[in-house]
Amino acid sequence: MAEKKSTRLRAMLDDGDTLLAPGVYNGLSARLVRQAGFAVAYASGGGLARRPRVPRPGLLTPPAAISRVG
Hints:
Strand content: under 5%
Distance between the termini: 63 Å
Order of helices and strands: HHHHH
Radius of gyration: 18 Å
Largest sheet: none
């Protein structure tokens, strides 16, 4: 049976070496990071939301307290 990815990540973190994890925001950037030889990468919610044509609702929709006037 193949080793779980979470087990592999835990072993890398427990190793004590510094992990350089470039940020990715779509499949293409993840593939490029892998081809460049990085062992790990990360994707943040903000990074994924900045993809073209995918707005982040929290940034574009005013909170109810602000949208009430009067």
